[in-house]
């Protein structure tokens, strides 16, 4: 596990499904768009999620689906769509065990659950090679961009990944943008996902942020 704070490239380890529910004309003004975005962001931040400003284009279809022009009611409707009952957890949630040892190098996937912001049951992950001398991480090489896997209505668009390692600890910060379309309303917000892992007994394992 890791502390959540948030890049989709070649995601072969899962399914990302972007939901596009009936389009609709933009019937609201910028004030309503902003008010709904603030309501959604406040909820996401209450779940210990570090996200940027939520950008949402409130359409007439979204207002009709929510049954109100009240920003709080619309935001509540949108948040309700973030937890589809049909979503199921992927058969292999983490990839920690899919690592091989060779001359002090571990093929590893750092990942973090992003169920709330991704609008589904999903993870953001980063493949890498971790070099070590048995007890200390000596270097890390990233393999491609970060990506999302699992079942999700939202898409993860990677920007960049930063690595911080010291001793046996490795912190992976994956930055990108989540996006989705709900009742014709485009929802977008930047985020940074932080995964924390540790070298233990020659293998990498996921640990809590406070453990490093």
Task: Give the secondary structure arrangement, pairings included.
Layout: H1 30-45, E1 55-56, H2 60-66, H3 71-80, E2 101-102, E3 105-113, H4 115-118, E4 120-132, E5 137-152, E6 155-166, E7 169-182, E8 185-200, E9 203-206
Helix pairs in contact: 1-3, 2-3
Description:
The protein is of the alpha+beta class and 212 residues long. Strands 1, 6, 7, 8 and 9 form a 5-stranded antiparallel β-sheet that branches. Strands 2-3-4-5 form a 4-stranded antiparallel β-sheet. It has helices at 30-45, 60-66, 71-80, 115-118; strands spanning 55-56, 101-102, 105-113, 120-132, 137-152, 155-166, 169-182, 185-200, 203-206. Among the domains are: 56-84, no CATH class; 104-211. 17% of the residues lie in helices and 42% in strands. Mean pLDDT is 75; it is low at 1-26 and 84-103. A hairpin with a 2-residue loop joins strand 8 (185-200) and strand 9.
């Amino acid at each position: 596990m890791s502390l959540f704070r948030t890049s989709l490239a070649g995601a072969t380890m899962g399914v990302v499904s972007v939901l596009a529910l009936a389009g609709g004309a933009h019937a609201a003004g910028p004030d309503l768009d902003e008010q709904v975005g603030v309501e959604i962001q406040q909820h996401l931040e209450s779940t210990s999620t570090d996200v940027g400003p939520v950008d949402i284009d409130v359409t007439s279809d979204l207002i009709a689906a929510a049954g109100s022009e009240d920003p709080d009611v619309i935001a509540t409707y949108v948040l309700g769509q973030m937890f589809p009952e049909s979503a199921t957890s992927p058969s292999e949630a983490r990839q920690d065990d899919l690592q091989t040892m060779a001359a002090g190098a571990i093929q590893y996937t750092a990942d973090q659950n992003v169920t709330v912001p991704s609008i589904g049951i999903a993870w953001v992950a980063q493949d890498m090679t971790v070099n070590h001398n048995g007890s200390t991480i000596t270097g890390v090489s990233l393999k491609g961009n970060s990506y999302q896997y699992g079942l999700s209505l939202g898409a993860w668009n990677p920007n960049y990944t930063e690595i911080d390692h010291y001793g046996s600890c490795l912190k992976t910060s994956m930055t990108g943008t989540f996006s989705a379309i709900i009742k014709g309303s485009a929802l977008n917000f930047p985020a940074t996902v932080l995964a924390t892992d540790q070298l233990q007994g020659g293998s990498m394992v996921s640990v809590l942020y406070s453990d490093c």
